[in-house]
Every structure is written in structure tokens, then in C-alpha cells.
Design goal:
The chain is mainly α and 366 residues long. 71% of the residues lie in helices and 0% in strands.
């Protein structure tokens, strides 16, 4: 199948949707709304209008977020239906990210109820229980009494291998940090494996997009787990995603050993503006910076990396139109709009000021 046949129809549809998103003032109107009810009313006449009915009937923001997740799943499936096998397989792996997060939330509920003894069964109703990509017995996971029940529920899926590395005793002692890191790394492994199956042009575009995402994750992990929580070098290595430009520098050393300093140097090599912000965050570890100052610096780094991702998203729309670039741009923009909307509704619930909301959304595409 040639690229025009593969992408002509779906890309035309998605470019029209992108145009509507970019010309919309929805996010700005929601931020300016004086309260939560008025912010919800801004959804009238948009693709989010069905959420108004859900909120009007339930006044439940978690139910609204669940509906947004179901819409995201349907959105991916609609795109997949227009694609050939390898390209559809790649977009299916993108959808696995939603499945992975749903699985994390289900396991967290089990952990809270059975190991931490903080029952949160009421939150189970907000999990997605339908098939997302793989056949998972969601009810069995949600109602699990033992960790072995969870392992049996994921037995025939890719999630069994990383989760089976751990026992209930280990999780009781150490928490869910390491199992969740394993799930994250599994997704990146599957993502980049699926990218390798794309055509040469599509593979180049997907690498550009997801190298930036992997770099962003690794930079934030460096900040959160080394600067702020002072993980050991060995523990830091366990959270680094083995993909992206930063990882590529580390891999060239070919000795399997790297330090936080080397990660930091590689990050600055590719994103030089981070140098001063990293220097300032080093002070946090020495107790010379308040928590609010640390949060401010971290937010600025996240904003910068989101800007880089936005630039990559924009650049994908300027390449030859019959490529995967339009799909990548659309999914990125649509996801960012969803995230912004969720953040605004939550902020309105807590009665945040307009200025504070805009500061928190500083790094989004909006």
C-alpha cells in the first residue's frame, strides 16, 4: 500500500479536527469562567458536550474523567480502523498507554485495600472495565485478595512478565514503585519495537516525537528521584527509560554504568537552557531552597520540555502530508487538550484563581 492510500482519507479528517482545536478558544473561556458550573457550561457545542450531561446528572468530576478516558479509547480505535497492519499495530501500542495506567490504578486499589488497609473500593467504579487492547479480567484485578490473583488475571498479556518479578511480600515491604517502573519500561520497549516496524519515513517521524517524550521522562526522573529524593545511583538507573537522545549518549559509553552527573550533562547537551535550572535545583539537595522554589524550578523545566514537544508536534504537520506525522500530531494535541480540560475542572473545583491556573498550565500546548 502506498502512502497516499494509507493516509489520504484519515489524515484529511484529522487535519480538519486539528484545525478546529487550534482555532478554538475553549480552554481560555474555561479558565476565565468564574466557577466550576460555568466552566462546564463552556463545553456546549464542542466535542466535549456529552460531558456536560454526565456532570449535570452526577456532579462527579471523576465520572467526567472516566468518560474522557472512554472517549480517548474510542478515538484511537477509530484511527486504527483506517490503517494497515503495521501502522495500526503502532497506534494500538499508543493505546496500551491508557491500558497500562488503568492497570496501575487497579493494582493501587488492591494495594490500598489489602496491604495499606485504607479501603478505596468506591474508586473502583471509575476504572475502565472494558477491553482496551488486551484481554484483562478487570473485575478479578479489582476484587483481588492476593497478589497471585492479579498475576493470574494478567497471565496471557505482556504485563505478566514484569509483574511476576515481584511477590506480595516484596510489595508489602517496598510498595508499588518498582512494579510500576517495570510497567512503564515495558510500554517504552513495546513502543519502540512497534516503531521499527513502520516505513522508513514514518519511523523517522515517530523517533523524533518519542525521543523527546523519553528525554522528558528521564529529565523529570532525574529531578524527582535524584535531586529531590536523593536515590542512589543504582536506584536511579532503574527508573531511566532506555530510549531517547539522552540515553543514546549514555549508551555510547558501552560500559553499562552511568551517573546522575552524566545524565545531567547529556540533558544539557541536547537542551542547553536546562543548565541554569539544574544548577539551581542542586541547591535544593543542600537545603538552600524552599519547597515552593523547588516546585517553581521543576515546573519551569516541565514547561520547557512541553514546549519542545509542542514544537515537534507542529513540525510534524509541515512534512509531506501522507505520513504518520498527522496522526502523531493529532493524538498529541488531543491528549494535551484533554489534560488541560481535566486540570481546569479540578482547579475550578478547588476555586483556584485564573492566574494560578494559567501558571499551572504554562507548559501545555494551550
Amino acid at each position: 500500500m502506498d502512502s497516499v492510500s494509507r493516509y489520504g482519507f484519515i489524515n484529511s479528517k484529522l487535519r480538519a479536527r486539528i484545525g478546529k482545536m487550534r482555532s478554538s478558544d475553549l480552554i481560555d473561556r474555561m479558565i476565565k469562567a468564574p466557577n466550576l458550573v460555568e466552566a462546564v457550561s463552556c463545553l456546549s457545542g464542542t466535542r466535549y458536550e456529552p460531558l456536560m450531561k454526565i456532570y449535570d446528572e452526577t456532579a462527579d468530576l471523576l465520572a467526567v474523567e472516566q468518560a474522557m478516558t472512554l472517549s480517548e479509547i474510542a478515538n484511537h480505535r477509530s484511527i486504527i480502523s483506517y490503517l494497515d497492519r503495521d501502522t495500526a499495530g503502532f497506534v494500538s501500542v499508543l493505546l496500551e498507554k491508557v491500558e497500562k495506567e488503568n492497570l496501575k490504578n487497579a493494582v493501587r486499589l488492591w494495594f490500598s485495600s489489602n496491604l495499606s488497609h485504607h479501603p478505596m473500593s468506591h474508586r473502583a467504579s471509575y476504572l475502565v472495565r472494558e477491553k482496551i487492547v488486551h484481554e484483562l479480567d478487570w473485575d478479578r484485578i479489582i476484587n483481588a485478595k492476593a497478589y497471585t490473583d492479579i498475576l493470574q488475571a494478567v497471565e496471557d498479556t505482556p504485563y505478566h512478565e514484569p509483574l511476576s518479578r515481584f511477590s506480595e511480600d516484596f510489595i508489602k515491604e517496598n510498595g508499588l514503585f518498582e512494579p510500576e517502573v517495570r510497567l512503564d519500561r515495558l510500554w517504552y520497549d513495546r513502543l519502540f519495537t512497534s516503531i521499527h516496524r513502520l516505513s522508513s519515513d514514518d519511523r523517522t517521524l515517530a523517533h523524533r516525537m518519542y525521543f523527546v517524550e523519553a528525554d522528558m521522562r528521564n529529565i523529570l526522573h532525574l529531578i524527582r528521584y535524584r535531586f529531590l529524593k536523593t536515590l542512589s545511583e543504582e536506584d536511579l538507573k532503574s527508573v531511566i527509560i532506555p530510549y531517547g537522545l539522552i540515553w543514546g549518549d549514555l549508551e555510547k559509553d558501552d560500559d553499562g554504568v552511568y551517573t546522575a552527573k552524566e545524565i545531567r550533562s547529556s540533558a544539557i547537551r541536547h537542551y542547553s537552557i536546562l543548565a541554569d535550572l539544574f544548577d539551581e535545583l542542586e541547591l535544593a539537595g543542600e537545603g538552600e531552597m524552599s519547597q515552593s522554589e523547588v516546585a517553581s524550578r521543576t515546573l519551569r523545566i516541565e514547561a520547557y520540555m512541553e514546549k519542545k514537544r509542542r514544537e515537534e508536534t507542529d513540525s510534524l504537520l509541515r512534512v509531506y502530508p501522507f505520513t504518520i506525522g498527522t496522526i502523531l500530531s493529532y493524538l498529541s494535541l488531543s491528549g494535551a487538550e484533554d489534560d488541560a480540560l481535566k486540570a481546569i475542572l479540578s482547579a475550578k473545583y478547588y476555586d483556584w484563581s485564573e492566574d494560578r491556573i494559567r501558571r499551572e498550565l504554562n507548559g501545555s500546548v494551550y
